[in-house]
Amino acid sequence: MSWLVFALLFWIGAWALNAALANSAYSGTRPVRIFVPVLFGVTLLVLWEGLVRGLGVSPVILPAPSVVAQTFARSTGILWEDFRQTVLKGALSGFAIGSMAAFVAAILIDRSAFLTRGLLPVGNFVAALPIVGIAPILVSWFGFDWQSKSAVVVVMVFFPILVNTVQGLRETDTMQRDLMRTYAAGYAQTLLKLRLPAAMPFVFNGLKIATTLALIGAIVAEYFGSPTRGMGFRISTGVGSLSIDLVWAEIIVAAIAGTTFYGIVVTIEKAVTFWHPSQRK
After folding, report:
1. Distance between CA atoms of 219 and 232, rounded to whole angstroms?
2. Which of 55, 92, 251, 266: CA 20 to 30 A from 276?
């Protein structure tokens, strides 16, 4: 019970410190804004460790963070191979293909009233299909390697990016478009110099949504067929063999990859849409 008492006391002390910092005059400074969530995360880990050790929870049900860290350290080779298979091959390739296809389709829809009325409703229908229904079909079509996972990711990221891009292209008002026509600008010039820049915040909203969907799609697709590597494959086999500590290690890798992927997109967004009010300080 000493572990449990220590964890509870640490949690109470950290909570009080966080509350004091959040309400202090320095709450808006960068060090405090970084320190508060970091301390909160450390507190959760300490509480998790204390509860597992203090209550004697079986590692088959919930391993302690220290056990997960040890498994992570001795399994870096396996984790790296799974990361390459799932993220670098499946998720990133599918994200790139789906994003480019969605962007081109959005331009075509913007030019065609027929596609606007015909493709968008179909897109909304396909976007509502559950991944567990699509993944087995695409795995049977494209095989068990990363190509099928990439295909699942393409389907998942295509329509969120498409819908956001189409909406962004419609954001310019009539006065702005009339001004471009006054300057004798054609469709291509208006698109490149007015409508695409105005659509960028919407495009990046779609891309940020797609970063999460890409990783989820690649991992879930591996449940329905994969070579003997990949994060989804390792999670499913780890649960079957009761290697829950390895499952949590894979989850940590997925969390780090997803956060990094999202952060890269946000960084590019800040550089591209620096003029937008949401990016101004």
Report:
1. 4
2. 92
- Level-2 CATH architecture, domain 72-279: Orthogonal Bundle (1.10)
Reported in sequence order, the residue ranges of 10-125 that DSSP labels E, i.e. its strands, are none
Token pair, residue 28, equals 């808006």
Is-contact 7 65, C-beta < 8 A?
no
In order of 100, 153, 175, 268, 275, the CA distances from 207 in angstroms are 11, 13, 29, 11, 19
242: which residues sit within 8 A by CB, 6+ positions away? 60
Question: pLDDT (tens digit, 0 to 9) for every residue of the chain, 281 residues total?
Answer: 577 787 788 888 888 887 888 777 777 778 878 888 888 888 888 888 888 888 888 888 888 888 899 999 998 889 999 899 888 888 999 999 999 999 888 888 877 767 767 676 776 777 677 777 788 888 888 877 888 888 889 988 988 888 888 888 877 766 666 666 676 667 777 776 777 888 888 889 989 999 988 988 888 888 887 777 888 888 888 888 888 889 999 999 999 999 999 999 999 988 888 776 766 65
